[in-house]
């Protein structure tokens, strides 16, 4: 409370008191001197002096009494002011209640209620800042806070911590097929299951903090468990096994049942990292390795994984630059008609000449790019490049065809499928001279959504082939519905020809029955070629015929073939021998 307020009140009271005192003195003088009103303006000087002296004598006591009165009146307000200044949301509560029954007591009651409301609001804000509203677990910010505290505690105790990064497999399908309400209910149930697993794992441990702080949900379908004071590394593996078992139990929401799995990455303090940030990063890397290994499993962090992640980031970030700076190019592996011994087409194989790492094969970067949406832009570039290079091939009676591989990652994402579809409809490709190769597994994954797309491509003039045929689980009923022109027998069967001969024979017989062409991949030996011919396969590709060629070398090869065929069609008649004139 400002110190001038009591002074101002005292001066006001003093001024009022002085005015009243002066009036009283004048009235008293009038009564004592028996003066009338007309004589009031003609008082003797001695009488005026007496009045002035009396006024000045009375003024100080009146002022002092006013100060005392103002201080007593404002003392409750001063008390409330001091308590308000000492109040802090982070400190101890302050009581604003007063032992009185006046307006100041009402003000104190209002301040008390305001303090309680502020405390509740502060608690709610803190909960929002550090807690996940869906599960009540620590969120990402709370996780960093608790993990940092746990690392400090472990450093003091000279103990080890395991961090388990849990990511649900294909959880998005639940939200897409049902609703987010179903997904939220399952996430809440998962939080309870994981909390029970944590409590079971730490039941014999003497921890200075509640088990709830060891489990957090940083966001989405991810959970993190901190396992402190572990004596052996195997304890983290045991915990991950219990987690996988708990997640695999069916979830019931209303009248529906759902099954899930999870991938887990494990890292250790201080073995792998000595800070919260690095532990989370390493556990995340290990979790992605678990997904790459087939999901529904756990993986410990290894330093080699970090290098793999760096390589993956380099490739994902560099592919746009590679397209823009012409670092990408295409080689074509010829496809041969075995009986006629002539090239009838070629498969387009993507290559990358990296400015620092040199030539990169597709097995190095294609799987990484398929994990991102960049596979759409890359496939569009391949389509446009193949369509342009197709025009460089020589004209023949039976025109050569070029085939393009369409990634399953495109078929599974409608926005990418539309991007590629627009490119296929936009390029000016000769009719049926571009073939689209799609793996059997990707076709069968979601046949009902893929079929309309294939029909559009077929109507646009593209041939469609099933790649790696025999490695998936095609149903004959589905196979009959597909607008396909042929199948390519996977190279794994050709490599192990003796054991795979019944399968190869069945594939060729099925193709003949359905009036489909067959191409055998990976033919490298003359014996393989002869066996395939005996089984009825007409087309093949592999190093027996040619390695992948640049478009210029493929053009030269086709021109040489055309020249040979033109020579064979010429019929030479032998000249009759004539006698010399002499």
Automatic annotation (TrEMBL):
Domain annotation GGDEF: ranges: 159-303
Ranges for domain EAL: 312-562
InterPro entries in alphabetical order: Biofilm_reg_signaling (IPR052155), EAL_dom (IPR001633), EAL_sf (IPR035919), GGDEF_dom (IPR000160), HAMP_dom (IPR003660), Nucleotide_cyclase (IPR029787), Rev_trsase/Diguanyl_cyclase (IPR043128)
Residues that span the membrane, as ranges: 12-33, 48-70
Name of the protein described by the UniProt record: Diguanylate cyclase (GGDEF) domain-containing protein
GO cellular component, one term: membrane
Keyword entries, A-Z: Membrane, Transmembrane, Transmembrane helix
GO biological process: signal transduction
PROSITE patterns from the UniProt entry: EAL (PS50883), GGDEF (PS50887), HAMP (PS50885)
Residue span(s) of domain HAMP: 71-123
Pfam entry (one): GGDEF
Organism, as annotated: Amphritea atlantica
């Amino acid at each position: 409370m400002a110190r001038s307020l009591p002074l101002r009140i005292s001066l006001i009271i003093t001024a009022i008191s002085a005015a009243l005192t002066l009036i009283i003195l004048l009235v008293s003088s009038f009564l004592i001197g028996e003066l009338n009103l007309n004589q009031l303006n003609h008082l003797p000087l001695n009488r005026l002096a007496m009045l002035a002296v009396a006024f000045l004598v009375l003024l100080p006591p009146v002022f002092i009494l006013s100060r005392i009165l103002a201080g007593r009146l404002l003392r409750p307000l001063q008390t409330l002011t001091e308590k308000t200044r000492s109040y802090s949301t982070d400190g101890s509560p302050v009581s604003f209640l007063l032992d009185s029954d006046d307006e100041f007591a009402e003000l104190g009651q209002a301040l008390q209620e305001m303090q309680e409301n502020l405390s509740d609001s502060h608690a709610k804000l803190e909960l929002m800042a550090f807690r996940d509203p869906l599960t009540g677990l620590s969120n990402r910010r709370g996780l960093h806070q608790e993990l940092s505290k746990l690392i400090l505690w472990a450093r003091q105790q000279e103990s080890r911590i395991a961090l388990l990064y849990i990511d649900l497999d294909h959880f998005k399908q639940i939200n897409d097929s049902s609703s987010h309400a179903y997904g939220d209910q399952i996430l809440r149930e998962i939080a309870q299951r994981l909390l029970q697993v944590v409590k079971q794992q730490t039941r014999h441990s003497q921890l200075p903090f509640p088990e709830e702080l060891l489990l957090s949900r940083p966001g989405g379908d991810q959970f993190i468990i901190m396992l402190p004071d572990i004596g052996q590394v195997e304890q983290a593996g045991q915990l991950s096994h219990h987690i996988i078992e708990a997640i695999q139990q069916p979830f019931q929401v209303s009248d529906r049942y759902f099954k899930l799995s999870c991938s887990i990455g494990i890292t250790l303090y201080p073995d792998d990292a000595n800070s919260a940030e690095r532990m989370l990063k390493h556990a995340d890397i290990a979790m992605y390795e678990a997904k790459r290994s087939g999901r529904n499993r756990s993986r410990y962090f290894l330093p080699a994984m970090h290098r793999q992640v760096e390589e993956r980031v380099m490739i994902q970030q560099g592919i746009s630059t590679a397209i823009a700076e012409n670092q990408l190019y295409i080689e074509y592996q010829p496809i041969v008609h075995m009986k006629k011994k002539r090239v009838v087409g070629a498969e387009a194989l993507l290559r990358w000449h990296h400015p620092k790492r040199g030539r990169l094969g597709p097995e190095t970067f294609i799987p990484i790019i398929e994990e991102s949406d960049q596979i759409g832009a890359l496939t569009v570039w391949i389509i446009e490049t193949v369509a342009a290079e197709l025009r460089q091939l020589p004209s023949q009676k039976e025109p050569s065809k070029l085939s393009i591989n369409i990634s399953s990652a495109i078929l599974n994402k409608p926005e990418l499928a539309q991007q590629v579809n627009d490119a296929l409809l936009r390029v000016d490709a000769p009719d049926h001279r571009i073939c689209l190769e799609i793996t059997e597994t990707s076709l069968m994954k979601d046949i009902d959504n893929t079929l309309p797309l294939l029909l559009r491509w077929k109507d646009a003039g593209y041939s469609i082939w099933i790649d790696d045929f025999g490695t998936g689980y095609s149903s004959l009923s589905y196979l009959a519905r597909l607008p396909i022109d042929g199948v390519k027998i996977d190279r794994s069967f050709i490599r192990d020809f003796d054991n795979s001969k019944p399968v190869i024979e069945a594939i060729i017989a099925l193709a003949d029955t359905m009036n489909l062409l067959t191409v055998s991949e990976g033919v490298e030996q003359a014996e393989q070629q002869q066996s395939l011919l005996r089984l009825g396969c007409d087309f093949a590709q592999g190093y027996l015929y040619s390695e992948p060629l640049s478009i210029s070398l493929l053009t030269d090869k086709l021109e040489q073939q055309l020249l040979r065929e033109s020579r064979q069609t010429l019929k030479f008649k032998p000249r009759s021998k004539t006698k010399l004139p002499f």
